[in-house]
């Protein structure tokens, strides 16, 4: 190696940790500060103003939040969001775990199944939601047709026109899209559990249910916590599916906070009120994140403090 | 450990205790549920595909023709889509936006992940945590203030607005993923290079990056898919038809009034999904590893 005469300024920079570190961080930091942290601040500020599209607003204090407090549509959207998130998450978890357990068995064409099952998650949500829109058509639904063919019903199901049906339909579409993510992530977790643990439990006389309940499930809880936090987070802030399938209807029965925020903010032009609704989602998101942290903490002792 | 190797030797290549359950039992507990899952998960795609090649007169006539099959497939919907709508333009827009934002996000993430994971400057742990928290900020609470900012910057209704805003959800994800990959590269390699007089930049480009290629592919295809599928920003920031992306264009321009042209809608949905599905089919393992890797970290 060719020796330098004296440590130049540049090489002394190269040896320190902080300056190159900060220079490497610069591009990402610039993006995240300009288009993530700054908008978060702007959003919070907008929530306290009466800004409309094309007109700068003035500070109005808590007026937006007061009007939301007395707004039955807003509370309906909160109720819908919680209902949608909890029902869809429970179903996604149960079905996803079931699918993961199936895929964890010895199956022929296992990698083929694993690949095919992820498809709903890969395809753009809006485009698969359009397919569901057609499947849920009030006159030409293929589900109605099939059920009528089997003689189970004698009239078309009004999937998206009736509030209960519409709620069930959007939840079903969300579950359809969410199962692959839960299943494949949990499958990755299942594969880290050593088969010798199962064998040991089985030699001790554990039934399959006991092996699942006392061996598999406790080993899996850390990953379940993380996967379900993500799942809850994405379901809670879901926008695309509702926007395509019902646009919040019928009579606001499927309006989520995200869709209400969009409707008030962009087509309605009330940026301030829309931002206030978005800010109102934050406490729920924080709760989900805290849940994730507690899930992650459990991980250390469960894996013997190795990871 | 010896017992494990013994049992493995006894049961050939079978892992676990699958050999304990009989075939009929496996059919009921495994194959039938798996079949149902696969059927339900794939049926919408089949329905999309079959609808997009059905002639209009068979589309809603379930009495004479079974809706599940098409006797005389037609390409009229796809032809209509490609030659009489702005669909090819939307495809091109989506491609430009997805490639550009993926590239930007990957470049920024490689540096950030390397800095956090290997340079370990003061406060790098804190920054790493911040990146993870940024990953949890959903677009649906950011789109209103971002629309406000995009408008103020004069980027409203341009592709640039999307190219610059998509990295906000791509960078946290890619950085988080690449941090995991960089962690798996032995420190000794870097130390050797450092002793041979390599600069940080040389270490990154000549040693770390070549070893992290699988991570780069995972992050790249995942970021591409995420930006291809993005909807709410594109819906909010883009107004004119010629700048729309596929998801927005199909939904806002192909749906006109009360007459739904289901054939061309389904063809549009199918064609718009094809690029990510093709990419996915080539890189399934990278895809799965990026998805599970980000969750497991």
Instruction: Quote the CATH topology of the domain at 83-268 and 285-301 in chain A.
Output: MetI-like fold
Query: What name goes with the CATH superfamily of the domain at 83-268 and 285-301 in chain A?
Result: MetI-like
State the end-to-end CA separation of chain A: 39 Å
Supply the CATH class of the largest domain in chain B: Mainly Alpha
Largest sheet of chain A: none
SSE string of chain B: HHHHHHHHHHHHHHHH
What ranges of chain B have pLDDT less than 50 throughout 5 or more consecutive residues?
1-14
CATH topology of the largest domain in chain B: the name is: MetI-like fold
Structural class of chain B: mainly alpha
How is this structure best described in words?
The complex is a heterodimer of chains A (307) and B (297). Chain A has a domain at 83-268 and 285-301: MetI-like fold (Orthogonal Bundle), CATH 1.10.3720.10. Chain A has 14 helices and no strands. Chain A has 307 residues and is an all-alpha fold. Chain A is globular and about 70 Å long. Chain B is globular, with a radius of gyration of 25 Å. Residues 1-14 of chain B have low confidence and may be disordered. Chain B has helices spanning 2-10, 23-52, 56-59, 76-84, 87-119, 124-135, 139-152, 159-165, 167-183, 187-195, 200-211, 213-229, 232-237, 246-253, 262-282, 284-296. In chain B, helix 4 packs across helix 15 and helix 9 runs antiparallel to helix 12 (213-229). Chain B has 16 helices and no strands. By secondary structure, chain B is mainly alpha-helical. Classes of the chains: A mainly alpha (307), B mainly alpha (297).
